[in-house]
TrEMBL record:
Taxonomic superkingdom: Eukaryota
Annotated DDE Tnp4 domain residues: 116-268
Source species: Ramazzottius varieornatus
Annotated protein name in UniProt: DDE Tnp4 domain-containing protein
Cofactor: a divalent metal cation
Length: 303
């Protein structure tokens, strides 16, 4: 039954508000065509390959993220919440042709597409990085020993220097205001960066000139430890390879910044449930998914 008709019937007193809600839900469920997708018919290996999580972990994710049982797309399609979560994960896991997604989920391609306006020349120019000879977006992140990408700031144009990204990210101001990171040698925490960054009360970088033998040894040791940041960014791109498939990414035609930030969050969820190379290397257990989500508002995966 059409929802507009139900509202009219409620206004005329033919049904009360409680029945309106019940009949509205039944109408949504009637519109929700089952399609060909059945998560529980897939093997564990298929789930891991297609969605990067097992079916049991997907259930945990759906509940933890409070996905509703019924979801609506911008095109007013009605689909189950679990299927919507799987579509998101499959979309980011690997570049997919729309026809492949249609076959997997049994849905019209209007569910899977979102198009943005092309960039103008000036915007394309500022995103061009001479180092890689391509249009690019950059991000600044803070990696923790437990494998969680605690901060992710961006995107910024590819032509920007890493030090400029750090300045624009407000990370330094956040550290100044934080009680956890007071800039004192005795009790404070510091960020360690490579030679692209300058030393500040919050950031330590390698000693560049006239380094003593001890400072040289420290540079070597910290360089080995700093690789964990590369592991962190690598994990975002490996399970959610869509963000690394340059042929599939269209700057100005797709919300690339949103894709990457969502992939970062999903990677953190994956680390909570499965651990990571970083957490194993430093022997630091990541938080549980519940602990991470409970403290999520204190984290910053934003621009």
């Amino acid at each position: 039954m059409d929802k507009k008709l139900l509202v009219i019937m409620c206004e005329e007193g033919d049904i009360d508000e409680e029945k309106l809600v019940i009949l509205g839900r039944l109408t949504d469920q009637a519109k929700m065509r089952p399609g060909d997708f059945d998560l529980y018919k897939l093997s564990r290996q298929d789930c891991l390959e297609d969605f990067r999580f097992s079916s049991h972990q997907l259930e945990i994710l759906k509940e933890a993220l409070e996905f509703p049982d019924i979801m609506y797309t911008d095109a007013q399609n009605v689909i189950p919440g679990m299927e919507a979560l799987c579509i998101l994960l499959r979309r980011l896991a690997y570049p997919n042709r729309l026809c492949d997604l249609e076959k997997l989920f049994g849905r019209n391609r209007s569910i899977f597409t979102l198009t943005h306006r092309p960039l103008d020349y000036a915007t394309q120019n500022i995103c061009y990085t001479g180092h890689k000879k391509e249009h690019d977006l950059k991000y600044t992140g803070v990696m923790t020993l437990c494998g969680i990408m605690y901060l992710m700031c961006g995107p910024e144009p590819g032509s920007f220097h890493d030090a400029k990204l750090l300045y624009r990210s407000e990370i330094l101001n956040m550290m100044k205001e934080s009680r956890t990171w007071p800039p004192t040698p005795e009790t404070g925490y510091y960020l360690y960066g490579d030679q692209a960054y300058k030393s500040t009360p919050q950031v330590v970088d390698p000693v560049r000139y006239n380094a003593s033998p001890l400072e040289t040894a420290c540079n070597t040791a910290m360089k080995t430890l700093r690789i964990s940041v590369e592991w962190g960014f690598g994990k975002i791109g490996n399970p959610f390879f869509f963000n690394k498939a340059l042929e599939a990414l269209k700057l100005g035609l797709q919300p690339l910044g949103m894709y990457f930030r969502v992939a970062t969050l999903l990677t953190n969820y994956h680390t909570c449930l499965n651990g990571s190379q970083t957490s194993n290397s430093f022997a630091v257990e990541p938080p549980t998914l519940a602990e991470y989500l409970e403290n999520y508002l204190e984290d910053h995966i934003d621009n």
